[in-house]
């Protein structure tokens, strides 16, 4: 079956719900699982599905994302594959920036004219899942779809936070509601598997993954269908174009909030995590050529480590430890994500810091850190205590913020020795 596809990964907007992780980077550039970036997930899913023509659309806080893409994805000169950046731009015809997800694709269509493709796969850059897009493409082609939306069954409690659609027995979408009110959910149940029905997952949520037939998408744009896929394109296509629901049965989560980001990372530490990093489908990322991690005298349980770490902690439990993390003796890390560092401090700087009493990069001696996210390049002194929990009010506190009881220490923050948070 012919699968002549170009994939477009949306670089995301301001990402305010992930602040402060998005203060200096876009959502897809946020580090995940200790050694990857969120954008590595959709790109890896494409490559593992045999789709190697990929464009990443960027606009807000794009420098970090651009650098990661440039340094990570290279194909040999005999391959027709690519992962390229398409940055938002002003021009003679259009002086505005992207006004929504659909507008981002619309403004980029002129750059796609040089490529040979029949279908466009639209992906979000801030989701965690493993999916073979070939199966979705086959479903789209075999059923003569104009637009196919990947959907996942959810329970009523979660349905109000998603775009919920209703489909018939043949997978045709008959109605769509963006974040519907709870009292209208009864009329939005769709046909799902017996297992999902038993779990109460009878509502189909849009995953923000779309396949368009090229000619149809161009026609929609010519008709001025709107600036956003969820709010405009999808509702307007129902009944007018053959709009299909492709049900996905695997693990999928939208990394939209600090809480969902935190939970998705800590789940990786479980014996059988929902997202399997050890599957036969690898997650690709930048090759950093770091040394192996070194752990000395530490009790470690349910922890994930990146590369190049130097660990002398007393205990690390149910935590993700990112690349180049340094944790000194006597410290305890529990239920936390430490993102690590972008570089190593040289020995001269370390000696000078010790003399002046300034913390070194990493986590000092006899610290206790629980329910926290430490962004990259943090300087945590000795005897620092960070204890997150529902007792802490949400807010921004300079060196750190609190959301849903999770303490997020900002990138490059300095917490002097003896600092107590919580």
TrEMBL record:
The keyword ATP-binding applies. InterPro entries: ADP-Glc_PPase (IPR011831), ADP_Glu_pyroP_CS (IPR005836), NTP_transferase_dom (IPR005835), Nucleotide-diphossugar_trans (IPR029044), Trimer_LpxA-like_sf (IPR011004). Keywords: ATP-binding, Carbohydrate metabolism, Glycogen metabolism, Nucleotide-binding, Nucleotidyltransferase, Transferase. Residues 7-270 form the Nucleotidyl transferase domain. It is an enzyme of class 2 (transferase). GO terms for molecular function: glucose-1-phosphate adenylyltransferase activity. The keyword Zinc does not apply. It comes from the Bacteria. It holds the Pfam family NTP_transferase. Its EC number is 2.7.7.27. Belongs to the bacterial/plant glucose-1-phosphate adenylyltransferase family. This is Glucose-1-phosphate adenylyltransferase.
């Amino acid at each position: 079956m012919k699968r002549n596809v170009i994939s477009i990964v949306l670089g995301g907007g301001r990402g305010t719900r992930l602040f402060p992780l998005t203060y200096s980077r876009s959502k897809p550039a946020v580090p995940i699982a200790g050694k990857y970036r969120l954008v590595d997930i959709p790109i890896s899913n494409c490559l593992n599905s045999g789709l190697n023509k990929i464009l990443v659309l960027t606009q807000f806080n794009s420098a970090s994302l651009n650098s990661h893409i440039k340094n990570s994805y290279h194909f040999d000169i005999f391959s027709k594959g690519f992962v390229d950046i398409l940055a938002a731009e002003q021009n003679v015809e259009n002086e505005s920036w992207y006004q929504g997800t659909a507008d981002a694709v619309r403004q980029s269509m002129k750059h796609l004219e040089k490529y040979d493709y029949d279908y466009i796969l639209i992906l979000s850059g801030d989701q965690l899942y493993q999916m073979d897009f070939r199966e979705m493409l086959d479903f789209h082609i075999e059923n003569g779809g104009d637009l196919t939306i990947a959907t996942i069954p959810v329970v009523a409690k979660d349905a109000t936070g998603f775009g919920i659609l209703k489909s018939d027995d043949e997978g045709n979408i008959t109605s769509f509601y963006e974040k519907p009110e709870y009292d209208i959910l009864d009329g939005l149940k769709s046909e799902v598997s017996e297992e999902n029905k038993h779990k109460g997952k009878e509502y189909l949520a849009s995953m923000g993954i779309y396949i368009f037939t090229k000619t149809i998408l161009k026609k929609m744009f010519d008709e001025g269908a709107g600036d956003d896929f969820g709010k405009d394109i999808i509702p307007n296509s129902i009944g007018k174009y053959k709009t299909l629901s492709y049900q996905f049965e695997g693990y999928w989560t939208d990394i939209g909030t600090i809480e969902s980001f935190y939970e998705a990372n800590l789940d990786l530490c479980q014996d059988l995590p929902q997202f399997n990093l050890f599957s036969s489908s690898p997650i690709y990322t930048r090759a950093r050529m770091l040394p192996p991690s070194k752990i000395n005298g530490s009790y470690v349980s349910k922890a994930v480590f990146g590369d190049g770490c130097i660990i002398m902690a007393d205990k690390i439990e149910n935590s993700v430890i990112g690349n180049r993390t340094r944790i000194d003796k006597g410290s305890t890390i529990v239920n936390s994500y430490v993102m690590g560092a972008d570089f190593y401090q040289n020995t001269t700087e370390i000696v000078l810091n010790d003399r002046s009493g300034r913390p070194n990069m990493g986590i000092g001696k006899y610290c206790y850190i629980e329910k926290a996210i430490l962004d990259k390049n943090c300087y945590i002194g000795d005897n620092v205590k960070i204890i997150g929990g529902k007792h802490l009010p949400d807010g921004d506190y300079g060196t750190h913020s609190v959301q849903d009881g999770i303490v997020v220490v900002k990138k490059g923050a300095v917490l002097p020795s003896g600092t107590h948070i919580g």
